[in-house]
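Risk register update: the risk of archive-format incompatibility is retired. Evidence:
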Amino acid sequence: MPAAPVASRGFTLVELMVVLAVLGIVLGIAIPNFQRVVVSNRMAAQANDVITAFSLARSEAVKRAAQVTVCASSDRATCTGGWAQGWIVRDAAGNVLRVFGPLSGNSTLAGAPQIVFTATGGTTLLAGTMLLLCPPAPAVVEGRAIEIERSGRPRVANTNLCP
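Archived output:
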């Protein structure tokens, strides 16, 4: 007499195809949303770095009772180059207080080449100014407008001014 068949363990081809189809649909929805989250978090972190530089310069200007400058710097020592290449905080004597590296992820930062904070914590600007932080094109998230008021107070707001 033949032996009874042993129950097979594993997946059938149909079950495997169903799982792969469901996985493909879930990944097709999740990956674009994940990219949006990554770019949005990068933009927030970069905006916070710029705000950190302005806050540091403002507090150092008050503490030292002298002017402190935040400026774009490509060589990490002098006020040359564009904001996307990095920026420095330096005192009235030209000593660099802190260096900030270049932006990551092909983001762009544009605006006044330097902001000077006075001993009272205000700026030397006649009016407030704005730096525009834009994500790489095509933009999947809004850019950030970093505004510096005459009083020296920096703040960040979402903006759709980016190309």
